[in-house]
Specification:
The structure holds 2 protein chains of 2 kinds. By secondary structure, chain A is mostly helical. Chain A is built from 12 helices and no strands. Chain A starts with 5 loop residues before the first helix and ends in an 18-residue tail after the last helix. Chain B is mostly helical. Chain B has 11 helices and no strands. The longest helix of chain B is centred in the first third of the chain and has 31 residues. The radius of gyration of chain B is 19 Å and the shape is globular. The chains are: A mainly alpha, B mainly alpha. At the A-B interface, helix 5, helix 10 and helix 12 of A face helix 4, helix 9 and helix 11 of B.
Chain lengths: 330, 296
């Protein structure tokens, strides 16, 4: 029995998600396979993209970046603008191929715009490290949200309405699998080794001939691009976005999932997202089974669980470790 | 002229509140290099403790209510340090930061679920007759609240400065900030000093919370926004420095008030943060901060 291979897991995940999508659309077993669970899975998929890409910056590069929701906002608004103002409606195009082209174009635009912003932010934050980098990235998050609030043609503070629903659970699953595949291969390539070397000792890395600033900016651009992808998916799934949903509360949520799962571990990113989302839903159902008015108290229990995990497992659930199928063969 | 004086007063009022929060951030960071993201929520908690004392014991005068709320909040701050942070003191920094975020979310929801999500205001009970007189004669709208906030905040800051720079406890605090591995060997009780720092920071934040509740309004989530801003003010001034925290707070308040007065209140956060980022790019260690050493 050999090791389980990464492509096999990916193919299996995609097959299962396609099956789920078709089963829910077709109304098979409506008791179990209902849109509520599919919605949860969609959220999990998008959060995996967000958390895994932030892990590049916070886990592998070892910087303390706090503005991930800002890049997500850039992607979401770019995708929303492309979908509503620039591209023709999916109905005008041939079936299957048309929606696919629209999705690729909007998501590509979202990634490109977010990457551009990420590159600029990276360029500016070169000089600072540690807590100062945290402030500057956080400041950029606030500036991006504030700028969108003042742009009237995207709805300003009222939000952007009327975005067509171009994504499905299957599209999100494909994007999540592609993200994980790209990140896994990059992290285990010489690029990833360079990032880890900067995390361990930037000065030593520099002495070994690593262009530290260039490598840092690569990671910023890359992480921003994938956050933009998640934003594009989010916008075309929710069909309504407001600037407020991309402020530092969202960033905090992404951080919580990241640290819960564990730093510098893609397995941890997946596990953290799933554990957090499932925990919140289980708490909701458990508490409402006792008394409906208790549902709100899960907001009190979940941070306690988080603190408990941090007190007992400092590196998160999977810190610095990786499931066998995500590792590359030595 | 009147308008300018009015704006300066607004800056002093907002800056004093920011400074009271920023001092707690700065002191804790200076001593154990911990960004306490729950500090904004301690500020919110202090405001609500003041509100509850005011509601339950309406006959209590402000000058008793305030120290009482400060003491209770200081106890809460020490409790948080004891339960959640002490065991992580030598841990990986990231897991401490996430713990502080967790404590913050916990406090927000605790207040929201026990007190309620609606915004409240603390009645100040200060006389208002002189306000109209001043407005008629000087064209400046000064309430007693405003005067009290500015005066009490500055007194508290002066007391803090004296404690840190002129007392034995302050000397121990500065020594711990300098080297927390060697100082305990000299017979200083490290846990006591750190608990004391949390207590002072939380008490100052409680004063800020009560003033904020009198001047503006309290809601369970205000700690996030104000906490971040005070933190940024502390960083701008040079985190770890008391003078720097005060300076950064008034600078941030000045930029914010000027943006609201002369541009648009919608641009407040964007312009304030844009300018502050520029400032940080020029002065990477903050205005009063010491450059960190790069170990090779």
């Amino acid at each position: 029995m050999g090791r389980i291979k990464f492509p096999i897991v990916c193919a299996a995940a995609l097959a299962v998600s396609l099956g789920l999508q078709l089963a829910v659309d077709g109304g098979v077993f409506p008791d179990v396979l209902n849109p509520y669970y599919l919605h949860l899975l969609t959220i999990i998929g998008m959060n995996i993209i967000l958390v895994a890409s932030l892990n590049l910056l916070n886990g592998y590069l070892g910087e303390f970046a706090l503005g991930h929701a800002g890049f997500m906002a850039v992607g979401a608004y770019t995708a929303a603008l492309l979908a509503t103002r620039v591209l023709p409606a999916a109905a005008d195009l041939p079936p299957v191929v048309g929606p696919f082209c629209i999705l690729v174009a909007t998501l590509g635009g979202a990634m490109a715009a977010a990457a551009l912003v990420g590159w600029l932010v990276g360029l500016l934050t070169f000089k600072t490290v540690g807590d100062y980098l945290a402030i500057i990235t956080l400041g950029f998050n606030m500036i991006i949200v504030n700028a969108i609030q003042n742009l009237d043609f995207v709805g300003g503070p009222r939000g952007f309405t009327g975005i067509p629903k171009n994504t499905s659970f299957f599209a999100v699953a494909v994007c999540a699998v592609v993200t994980l595949a790209v990140l896994r291969n990059l992290i285990q390539s010489s690029f990833g080794r360079v990032w880890v070397s900067i995390r361990e000792n930037a000065i030593a890395a520099e002495l070994m001939g690593v262009a530290v600033n260039r490598a840092k900016n690569q990671v910023f651009t890359l992480a921003a691009a994938f956050a933009g992808l998640a934003g594009g998916l989010w916008a075309q799934n929710q069909q309504f976005i407001t600037p407020r949903s991309f402020d530092y509360i969202k960033t905090t949520e992404i951080l919580v999932m990241l640290y819960l799962g564990g730093m510098a571990s893609l397995s941890g990113s997946i596990l953290g997202v799933v554990a957090y989302t499932v925990l919140m839903e289980v708490l909701r159902n458990l508490l409402s089974a006792f008394a409906p008015q208790l549902t709100e108290w899960r907001m009190l229990i979940s941070p306690l669980i988080l603190i408990l995990i941090m007190l007992t497992r400092q590196y998160g659930l999977m810190g610095n470790r990786e499931w066998a199928w995500l590792r590359k063969a030595p | 002229m009147g308008v300018l004086v009015q704006q300066l007063l607004n800056v002093a009022q907002l800056g004093a509140v920011y400074a009271l929060i920023a001092l707690g951030y700065s002191m804790v960071y200076g001593i154990i290099r911990l960004i306490n993201f729950a500090h904004g929520d301690i500020f919110m908690l202090g405001g609500f403790i003041g509100l509850l004392i005011g509601v339950r014991l309406p006959w209590l005068p402000v000058y008793v209510m305030m120290p009482l709320a400060m003491i209770l909040t200081a106890l809460a701050g020490v409790l948080v340090e004891r339960v959640a942070y002490r065991r992580l003191r030598n841990a990986n920094r990231m897991s401490v930061v996430i713990t502080t975020l967790g404590v913050g979310i916990f406090l927000e929801n605790l207040v929201r679920l026990t007190v309620g999500p609606e915004t409240r205001q603390i009645r100040s009970g200060m006389p208002t007759a002189s306000v109209a007189w001043l407005q008629g004669h000087l064209g400046v709208y000064v309430t007693w609240d405003k005067v009290l906030i500015i005066l009490v905040s500055f007194s508290l800051m002066a007391i803090l400065w004296l404690v840190v720079n002129r007392t034995l406890v302050g000397t121990a605090m500065r020594a711990v900030a300098d080297n927390k591995d060697v100082v305990p060997l000299m017979g200083v009780n490290l846990n006591l000093i750190i608990a004391g720092t949390f207590a002072i920071g939380s008490a100052l934040a409680a004063a800020g919370g009560i003033f904020y509740g009198q001047a503006y309004a309290l809601d369970p989530y205000m700690g996030i926004d104000l906490g971040w801003k005070a933190f940024i003010a502390a960083v701008i001034g040079g985190i770890g420095s008391i003078e720097g925290a005060v300076l950064g707070s008034f600078l941030l308040a000045g930029v914010e008030v000027a943006t609201v007065a002369y541009l648009s209140s919608n641009l407040k956060n964007g312009i304030a943060f844009g300018l502050l980022i520029l400032l940080l790019l020029v002065w990477p260690w903050g205005i009063m901060g010491k450059p960190g050493m790069r170990k090779v």
